[in-house]
Design goal:
17% strand, globular, alpha/beta, disordered N terminus, binds S-adenosylmethionine, two-stranded antiparallel sheet, 275 residues, 8 helices
Length: 275
Amino acid sequence: MGSGSQTFRGGYAKLGFCLPLSRPAETMSTTRKIREKFAEFRRAERKAYWLWDQGRWRYFTYRHRKEALLNSVFDREHAIETAVEIPLGAVGVPQADVARGNAVYRPLTETVFRAALASVHFDPAKFTFVDIGSGKGKVMFMAADHAFRRIVGIEYAAGLHEVALRNIASYRSKTQICKAIEAVHADVLEYTLPEGPLLLFIFNALAKQTMRGFLEKVDREAARDPKRPIALIYTNVRTVAEIGNVFSALPNLRIIRRERKYVVIANEAAAALAQ
Ligand SMILES: C[S@@+](CC[C@H](N)C(=O)[O-])C[C@H]1O[C@@H](n2cnc3c(N)ncnc32)[C@H](O)[C@@H]1O
């Protein structure tokens, strides 16, 4: 950090970030920032668009900070570490495979997870829950508040898989129901899905083409036994529209629910149970 930007290392720093302490330097840099923004605005050809874009960016930054704080609180409550975001290249994913895994690890927030899961009305005791791209394990821990038969997380980054194993060992929760939690180090394209009814979960894990490849694999699995319920919840940090039309033209799966941040696809056997 530059001069005048000492940081406060108590309180919030324990939650994973620091606050600027030096007021004068902060004020000076803010003044300079305002001048620069004003000059940018004067130079902008489409001023209304520039203002809209700035507002959107500010909102995204605010929301990201709020989510980071809530993620840290979740970790502290449960004696685990899942909040810190990290590029996949830094946790053992070869450069050639980074882009197809969307480049960065970040955990899902509780709000989105709970809304997405509440949208399907399965009896969890019949299902194995599988987190596709499970990172440090947060989705598995949130799923453990439900009576799933078993919970599995598949992760291709060796460094994240190791953190998930440590988290499983240290996880503490008064609301945990499912204790059968297993982290698997594998690429989801090569992994053989568990037998029996499946609830698959994906949070921003796969880039479009890889996602399509994985969905076709799930579709083939559904074709093997039409009576076996298979459903998949896909969540996106901004909007599911970002993944495009990957859910279309799958002979054995159809969309049964679509919201801004999540979509649920299922075969007929799972669709009948989800009502
Ligand atoms: C956005 S993170 C979500 C992590 C976790 N589901 C959560 O919400 O806490 C996506 C994860 O998918 C993993 N991933 C991406 N491509 C993968 C693949 N082909 N096989 C296994 N894991 C993959 C990444 O390494 C990353 O940890």
